[in-house]
């Protein structure tokens, strides 16, 4: 399924009330947290363009932005639609499919991460995709758990949900007063594991606004995924990483550990987890020259140029 309006607001038809601009298609892998966050952050910079999802009506859109879904990119190119294909990191999808060469491929990944192998041929790096709003609410409360189970074996996901996640949710309710879990896939076992704590909200990432939820949360626990790292870095906010699940998360967590000493959210009884420092955390250790946080604007600009002047 596609995200028709990932920002949660009414689609912008024009800028300044003028004539509607070209129509662009926006699509992402809804079961992958990085894809959902990437699409929403780029979409926030597409004012003046009319937006539609995968199931939008004909005529064909002037251009398309597809996040990680190689098959969707291929179908659109076959229909003659120019595509900006946005990859979440150089590892690509688990089946190893590469995006078609005719697509304009962009890869979002923090510039401060150690190299992890070549990306898709012809791909250009974008750096971090920061949320459009980088401030946080003055009054923050509760805990946000941003959980990715994309590509995680069912047995591993079930064990984590019934063990570590259940303990963290219970501690979050006790320590911070509320807990919201936003997950990309595997919601059934997550809800089952948390059934004993009905006060815990469990939301599907594609139907929520994780960036807005983070702005109002006092404590942020997240899977080691690119979108969560970008969110905390852009807002200079404390972040504790959940235990990595699946090979992709373990690889990314190991790369992050080479650069940043982020705390781990494994022990619900650790009092430091529920009283994060007032300071920004370790983000000051990063060289600001390695990433300007404008990746979403760059991708949006490329899509706008493609829609207005197709190749």
From TrEMBL:
InterPro entries named among the record's database cross-references: CGA_synth-rel
Domain of life, per lineage: Bacteria
Spans annotated as Disordered: 1-20, 111-135
Annotated protein name in UniProt: CGA synthase-related protein
Originating species: Streptomyces racemochromogenes
Gene (name only): blsF
């Amino acid at each position: 399924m596609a995200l028709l309006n990932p920002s949660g607001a009414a689609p912008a038809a024009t800028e300044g009330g003028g004539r509607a601009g070209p129509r662009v298609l926006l699509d992402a892998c809804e079961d992958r947290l990085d894809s959902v966050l990437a699409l929403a952050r780029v979409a926030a910079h597409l004012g003046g363009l009319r937006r539609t999802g995968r199931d939008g009506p004909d005529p064909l859109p002037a251009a398309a932005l597809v996040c990680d879904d190689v098959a969707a990119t291929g179908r659109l190119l076959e229909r003659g639609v120019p595509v900006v294909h946005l990859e979440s990191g150089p590892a690509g999808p688990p089946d190893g499919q590469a995006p078609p060469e005719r697509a304009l491929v962009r890869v979002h990944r923090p510039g401060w991460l150690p190299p992890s192998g070549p990306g898709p041929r012809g791909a250009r790096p974008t750096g971090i995709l920061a949320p459009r709003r980088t401030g946080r609410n003055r009054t923050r409360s509760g805990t946000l758990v941003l959980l990715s189970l994309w590509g995680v074996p069912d047995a591993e996901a079930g064990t984590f949900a019934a063990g570590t996640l259940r303990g963290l949710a219970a501690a979050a309710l006790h320590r911070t007063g509320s807990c919201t879990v936003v997950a990309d896939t595997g919601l059934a076992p997550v809800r089952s594991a948390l059934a004993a704590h009905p006060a815990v909200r469990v939301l599907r990432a594609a139907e929520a606004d994780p960036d807005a939820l983070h702005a109002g949360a006092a404590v942020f626990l997240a899977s080691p995924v690119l979108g969560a790292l970008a969110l905390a870095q852009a807002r200079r906010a404390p972040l504790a990483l959940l235990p990595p699940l699946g090979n992709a998360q373990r690889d990314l967590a190991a790369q992050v550990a080479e650069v940043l000493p982020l705390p781990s959210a494994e022990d619900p009884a650790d009092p430091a987890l529920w009283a994060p420092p007032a300071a920004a955390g370790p983000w000051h250790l990063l060289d600001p020259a390695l990433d300007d946080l404008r990746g979403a604007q760059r991708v949006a600009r490329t899509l706008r140029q493609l829609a207005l002047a197709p190749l």
